[in-house]
Specification:
Elements: H1 5-19, E1 25-29, E2 33-39, H2 42-56, E3 63-64, E4 67-68, E5 71-76, E6 79-86, H3 90-93, H4 101-115, H5 120-125, E7 127-132, E8 137-145, H6 148-158, E9 163-169, E10 173-179, E11 185-192
Length: 194
């Protein structure tokens, strides 16, 4: 049985609850898999990846020349986690961190509630990016449209449940922005495949 995007968000929220404190994460979630980047290096990255591995029930993280090796784990159903370390962006390391792993798990639960209301065709092909920048989270839903008349429909479907949702054309398709009922901003991108 395949998970939905909402189910994926719930599964990753549970995983984060079990991990304890982690370095900031960049997550790319879909109905099929989760790609996680631990935004750290050295011992901090190894510790965070080790906590992810332990919570996912896989063996310890190994390190090669001080760089932790990526890990792969089956989370639930058909959901696969792939995690690795990545250097933080310059603006992520500049200030003291105000985000947390607990807050990231709560954000994923909020997003799961919203994703559960998305059109199922969209939810099975979309990717949701959640980026912990250390000082704030950014959220972006990305999807595709195969024909020009599908572009507007895909953008409208992606904006379901978002207040003050507005869109604009780009060279690659349509971008948009709206707010969840909790006030969290969600960016939307629909890429034309034609």
């Amino acid at each position: 049985m395949s998970l939905s995007l909402a189910g994926c968000l719930e599964a990753v929220a549970r995983l984060l609850d079990a991990c304890g404190p982690l370095e900031p994460l960049r997550l790319c979630l879909s109905a099929r898999d989760v790609q996680a980047e631990v935004c750290a290096s050295g011992a901090a990255a190894t510790l965070s990846l080790g906590r992810l591995a332990g919570a996912a029930g896989v063996g310890p993280v190994t390190s090669s020349h001080g760089v932790p090796e990526p890990l792969t784990a089956d989370l639930s159903g058909d959901l696969v986690l792939v995690a690795a370390a990545a250097p933080p962006a310059p603006d992520e390391a500049a200030d003291a961190r105000v985000t947390s792993t607990r807050a990231a798990a709560e954000l994923l639960r909020t997003l799961a509630s919203w994703a559960g209301g998305l059109d199922q065709d969209l939810a099975h092909t979309a990717e949701l990016w959640v980026d912990d920048r250390g000082h704030a989270y950014t959220v972006r839903l990305l999807t595709t449209a195969g024909q020009s008349d599908d572009l507007e429909a895909a953008a409208a479907a992606a904006g379901q449940g978002l207040a003050r949702f507005r869109t604009w054309r780009t060279d690659s398709g349509i971008d948009g922005v709206g707010r969840l009922p909790c006030g969290r901003t969600v960016h939307v991108g629909v890429v034309a495949l034609y």
